[in-house]
Amino acid sequence: MSDTFTVALIQMRCAPDAASNLAKAEAAIAEAAKQGAQIVCLPELFLGPYFCQKEDTATFDMAEPIPGPSSDRLAAAAKKAGVVVVGSIFEKRMPGVYHNTATVYDTDGTLLGLYRKMHIPDDPLYYEKYYFTPGDLGWKVFDTKRGKVGTLVCWDQWYPEAARLTALQGAEVIFYPTAIGWHPKEKAEYGEAQSSAWETSMRAHSIANGTFVAAANRIGYEPPPDGDPKGGLEFWGGSFVSDPFGRMLKKASHDREEIVIVSCSRKLMEDVRRNWPFFRDRRIDAYGGIVRRVVD
């Protein structure tokens, strides 16, 4: 296998209808492949606006099985472009059980498997606990034809345990399909600190685990259900790839649709881990408390 693999992050604005978003994603996958990408990641729940701003039983009608119409289209796009694709789908597992699910397709369109989002938030305008059952597949790494791909999703990005357990399975890159943004009322006071913390958290995962991290976010203002012009969410983009030193290799803007393409070196991973042998020095005999809610 080559020393390098090339990843692409699709940073996009999500239209109200799934058909437009799926067509845009297919075109972006093809364009990324044309620019040399080998592994392409889409944002979280890219098929429509971020629907978790409100709780509405009718929204469950948007969910679909996997395999299903959208996953079949992503599989076909992966095969046509000859790239690995990381998708994100609102999965209907059975009536009453739904997941926020990452899908991974190999270069021949084969669905290698699923990762179901493990950490589910419940914050103002992020009412995900209403919609998503927590994942039950554990931490996943997929041995694709282009590399060992780890997948986590959005809120998972704040948890070092998730990144560590994914890295321990051999992930060469951890992808985070993401939908995160500012509350317009808070942006002036907290906006810079919030986006910086988001970025810093994942760059720290790169360092602690000696691996590449890649976060694909959406952009654009999406209004709230009640129409309040000061409400809603402004998704901050900023999709990026960081290396095993935590260095920012490339970062997208906060407000434009872009394809972020970065070449990643396996040799760099090896060199960093030899000189910073965090895995060697882990005290696995002393970490029992981590599985307790509170150590008291």
TrEMBL record:
A molecular-function term among this protein's GO annotations: N-carbamoylputrescine amidase activity
Keywords in alphabetical order: Hydrolase
Domain CN hydrolase: 5-266
GO biological process entries: putrescine biosynthetic process from arginine
The keyword Hydrolase appears for this protein: yes
CDD domains recorded: CPA (cd07573)
Stated name of the protein: N-carbamoylputrescine amidase
Organism per entry: Fimbriiglobus ruber
